[in-house]
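Need residues for this backbone.
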């Protein structure tokens, strides 16, 4: 592991996670149906106590978990991360009743969670979402009630999740200030969905809301303040998306080091070619730089630093762009064998593309960084 602020116990834990991912989680991942929620894998993550750590650990520990699992089993990493993303709003903003009902089941892997923010016309511009929460009359001054109508798209774990954190517009024309977060169980009448066949090999789909009923007890946080719930969640998970990317980059680098050291080429080993060795050095340099930025952003989050949005955006941007470069370079240095279906690098090549888009595309991260930088000039 790199020289950073990691304690020996953290370094040992990362090694244990990689071993668990290879020995216990990998075989379950291989048996899972492609593009579907792997419930046996989730249950094993629960038995190992890793899902519970989503709610008891800080951002740095989350990053260490995601990086370590990704180096050995990206499917296990993704299953863990999606549980955290979908259930974190419940953990951070839910009522005692909401938390008591759902978090133990999420932690044991018996309930699947999902984060439902993106829409067909509101991906990167999340504040433009149009899923409507239309108020119903409340005779006698009873609790507030709404009907959700509209569509969500590109929702990980949909349509198989058991609970959804859903962001809907409660005040038309109010932009980010008119969005409310709701906890919506999957069995609510009017909620349907369908899977999407995507390049990234994990469960993802669309959801349709046909006057789905929700009440005040389903609200996460406060009415019209749901965008805060979304951004708080993304500020935590963006550095850990970077950690996922670093784990993939490190796996590609490890494979490339082994391959170039033993591959015969032009009367020697592939590593003896300067063009090859310099490319490998560049891969290692970028991977380490991304890792350090991820750890720094996570530490800033844990310490409550004021510049978390900028650091989170920087970490996700650098790490995901770096992973794309490193995996692509690894494929190039392996040659045609890396393009064969089932090769570890073929899997990584498909897996590495999506993180540059989800939870805020690279272009969005650059916008956040610039906005935060210029805001410091305007501060008194």
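Answer:
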């Amino acid at each position: 592991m790199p020289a950073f602020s990691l304690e020996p116990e953290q370094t040992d834990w990362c090694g244990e996670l990689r071993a668990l991912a290879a020995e216990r989680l990998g075989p379950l991942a291989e048996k899972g149906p492609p593009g579907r929620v792997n419930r046996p894998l989730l249950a094993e993550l629960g038995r190992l106590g890793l899902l519970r750590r989503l709610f008891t650990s800080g951002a740095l520990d989350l990053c260490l978990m995601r990086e370590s699992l990704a180096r050995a089993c990206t499917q296990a990493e993704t299953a863990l991360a999606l549980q955290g993303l979908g259930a974190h709003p419940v953990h951070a903003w839910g009522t005692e009743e909401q938390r008591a009902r759902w978090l133990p089941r999420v932690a044991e892997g018996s309930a699947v969670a999902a984060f439902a923010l993106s829409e067909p016309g509101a991906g990167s511009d999340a504040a433009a979402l149009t899923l409507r929460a239309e108020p119903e009359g409340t005779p006698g001054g009873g609790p507030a009630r709404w009907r959700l109508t509209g569509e969500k798209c590109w929702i990980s774990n949909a349509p198989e999740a058991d609970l959804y954190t859903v962001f809907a517009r409660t005040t038309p024309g109010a932009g980010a200030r008119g969005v409310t977060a709701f906890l919506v169980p999957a069995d609510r009448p009017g909620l349907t969905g369908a899977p999407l066949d995507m390049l990234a090999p994990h469960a993802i789909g669309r959801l349709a809301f046909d006057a789905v009923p929700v009440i005040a007890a389903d609200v996460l946080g406060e009415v019209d303040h749901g965008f805060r719930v979304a951004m708080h969640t993304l500020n935590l998970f963006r550095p850990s998306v970077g950690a996922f990317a670093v784990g993939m980059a490190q796996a590609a680098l490890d494979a490339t080091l082994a391959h170039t050291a033993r591959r015969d080429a032009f009367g020697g080993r592939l590593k003896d070619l300067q063009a090859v060795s310099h490319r490998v050095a560049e891969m290692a340099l970028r991977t380490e730089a991304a890792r350090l930025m991820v750890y720094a952003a996570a530490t800033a989050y844990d310490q409550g630093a004021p510049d978390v949005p900028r650091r989170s955006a920087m970490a996700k941007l650098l790490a995901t762009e770096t992973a794309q470069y490193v995996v692509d370079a690894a494929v190039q240095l392996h040659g045609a064998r890396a393009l064969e279906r089932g090769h570890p690098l073929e899997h990584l090549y498909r897996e590495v593309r999506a993180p540059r888009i989800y939870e805020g595309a690279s272009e969005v991260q650059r916008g956040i960084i610039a906005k935060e930088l210029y805001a410091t000039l305007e501060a008194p």
